[in-house]
Amino acid sequence: MGPDRTATFFEVLIAILLPPLGVFLSHGCCSAQFCICLLLTMLGYVPGIIYAVYAIVVVDRERLREYYHPINS
Fold it and tell me: How far apart (Å, rounded) are the C-alpha atoms in residues 8 and 56?
């Protein structure tokens, strides 16, 4: 179990407790995934958890960084 898998495991555990925090650790604060997860969590806790796990496990971070750059760079 490498460091990437361990980090993903802990991000999913955090996402079960606080979905936006797990997505924040995975994708950052100003990402579309974070905003969607925050909105879904406010509308209902379970949809927020489902989307957070999806965003952490399925959405490829490196592919998104090619197209979307952080605000500060």
Answer: 7
Residues 19 and 60: their CA atoms lie apart, in Å, by: 18
Terminal C-alpha separation, the chain = 32
Return the higher-pLDDT residue of 33 and 68.
Answer: 33
56 token code pair? 């952490």
Give the C-alpha distances (Å, rounded to integers) separating 35 from 5, 7, 56: 24, 21, 14
Q: pLDDT for 31-42, tens place per residue?
A: 888 999 999 999
Tokens of 1: 């179990």
